[in-house]
Design a protein that fits this description.
The chain is globular, with a radius of gyration of 16 Å. The protein has one domain: Alpha-Beta Complex (Phosphatidylethanolamine-binding Protein), CATH 3.90.280.10. The longest helix is centred in the C-terminal third of the chain and has 11 residues. β1 and β2 form a beta hairpin. With 206 residues, the chain is mainly beta. The strands form 3 sheets. A 7-stranded mixed sheet has the order 3-4-11-10-7-8-9, with no helix packed on it. It is built from 2 helices and 11 strands; from the N terminus they run ββββββββββαβα.
Length: 206
Amino acid sequence: MFRKYEGSMNFFLVDASIHRRCVLMSNVQMFAEELKLVESKVSYPSGAKVELGKEITPIEVKDEPTVTWEADNDALYTLIMVDPDAPSRAEPTFREILHWLVVNIPGNKVTQGETIAAYIGSTPPQGTGLHRYIFLVFKQAGKIDATNITPKITIRESRRNANTRQFMAKYNLGEPIAGNFYQAQYDDYVDILRARQIKHNFFSVK
């Protein structure tokens, strides 16, 4: 049985089987291959746990989570987190917003990987409804030379219009081997979080 989370050009189809099937469409061309994904485990210091499509409040996801998956300890992995619904699911002109990017993760030890874009929490604008926040894990063919990843200016706008599909192709990542996502929408805490992120330059891309 499928639960459908629809967007303009972007949606997920999730079934209840052991191997979750997620269908993702990219920001430029339709990425509609059916993917067999093992559900990655994502838990936050607040106690919130990501369950496929479950709504979580912005305050619950303000801090970097712990993400784990079934991994080969001798392999390297990439973790990407994006919001495809920016500024809204109806008009995703900024699709995708890059929320987190870590490469060269040994096994599933995320803290030992190379952080390209530091984690930022969910700050959906007021009146834009639910946004999806998607975690995707890729097994790398080898070590990625992080120095070749073009640095971006350290402002909020630098995270707009990220393209997971292009990144996958550039670094020969293949299809994701694990993933998960939650949904969040604006509440009063978003304004506090945005001000805090700007003050501490949490939008930087390393």
